[in-house]
Amino acid sequence: MSNIRLKLGNCIELLRELPEGSVNQIFADPPYNLSGKGFQTVKSGKMVDCNKGEWDVIEDIHEFNETWIRECIRVLSDDGTIWISGTLHNHPSVGVTLKKLGLWIVNDVIWFKRNAAPLLSKTRLAPSTELIWIASKSKKYFFDYDTAKMINGGKQMRNLWQINAQRHLTKHPTEKPEILLERIVMLGSKEGDTVLDPFMGSGTTGVVAKRLKRNFIGIEISPEYHEMAQNRINGIKTNGKAVYSDKLLKNNEQLKMFLEEKAEYVN
Q1: In terms of C-beta density within 10 A (0-12 exposed, 13-18 middle, 19 or more buried), how is residue 181 classed?
Q2: Average confidence score pLDDT of the chain
Q3: Pairing assessment for the beta strands 194-197 and 215-220 based on DSSP bridges
Q4: Mean pLDDT, to the nearest integer, of 56-61?
Q5: For the whole prediction, is pTM greater than 0.85?
Q6: Residue pLDDT, tens place only, 120-161
Q7: pLDDT surpassing 50 at residue 119
Q8: Closest residue by Cα to residue 194 from 179, 205, 178, 180
Q9: Rounded CA gap, 74 and 21, in Å?
Q10: 150 neighbors 157 (Cβ within 8 angstroms)
Q11: What is d(CA 209, CA 204) in angstroms, rounded to the nearest whole number?
Q12: Residue 35 has pLDDT above 50, yes or no
């Protein structure tokens, strides 16, 4: 049974309570700093000021990124990886920070949303991608290449992932699709490993980690979203075995067999 620990509060403060090298994989979807005056978004077909919440207003985004990433690296195991999601508004800062802290850049994954929402403005291209940095402490890190290849139909997986945007299951404004996190957790950890999400939001990473028989530590600063994540994760039933999504296994008998054999080997 997975060990699930959900913490309410500032991730920088709570990360300092975790032992050094105690987690195997980190997925982080940090604030993109897109809220406040001067930032706009579309709601009900109209342009409005973007206001995701106070958690998305950062005075010094570069200092903020360096502080939380430094603490994440401290708690990451020597063979673990950190995956950081973002857009062009925050990602350059994250990339510079990873290099400054001396990390090994494994990949930059481009998540391409084929069904991304159209853009009302006629002054730029319609955004349809997000970026995911993958980094480690050294060149010796865990990466499940065989599973990645099987998910990709027996071919080497590339860093362009075509995964449709999904209808949100909660009202959290930056909720990620479970199928995206499923792939990330499967490639970056093993059953029984501990996965950390320092910006847990509505709990997607925890839901997936629990389904895939990983331990999970989630940190969330908003009491509303913390409760939402807690209820969502507690509602997941696994019956003692890894549970994969229908979207992953659909029409792929070879992948089903591969995962079943792998589970028997692990157990």
Answers
A1: buried
A2: 89
A3: parallel
A4: 74
A5: yes
A6: 778 889 989 999 999 999 999 999 999 999 999 999 999 999
A7: yes
A8: 205
A9: 6
A10: no
A11: 9
A12: no
Residues in the chain: 267
* Tokens read off for 198: 């320092």
3-state secondary structure the chain: CCCEEEEECCHHHHHCCCCCCCEEEEEECCCCCCCCCCCEEEECCEEEECCCCHHHCCCCHHHHHHHHHHHHHHHEEEEEEEEEEECCCCHHHHHHHHHHCCCEEEEEEEEECCCCCCCCCCCCCCCCEEEEEEEECCCCCCCCHHHHHHHCCCCCCCCEEECCCCCCCCCCCCCCCHHHHHHHHHHHCCCCCEEEECCCCCCHHHHHHHHCCCEEEEEECCHHHHHHHHHHHHCCCCCCCCCCCHHHHCCCHHHHHHHHHHHHHHC
Place of tokens 């990602």: 91
Q: Which CATH architecture has domain 4-266?
A: 3-Layer(aba) Sandwich (3.40)
List phi, psi (to 5°) of 231. Answer: -65, -40
* Contact assessment for residue 216 and residue 194, using Cβ atoms and an 8 Å cutoff: yes
Type of residue at 89: H
CA quadruple 3, 9, 12, 18: dihedral positive or negative?
negative
Structure token pair of residue 87: 């857009």
Under the banding of pLDDT at 50, 70 and 90, the label for residue 88 is: confident
Instruction: For 220-238, write each residue's pLDDT tens digit.
Output: 999 999 999 999 999 998 8
For the cut 80, the answer to whether the pLDDT of residue 264 exceeds it is no
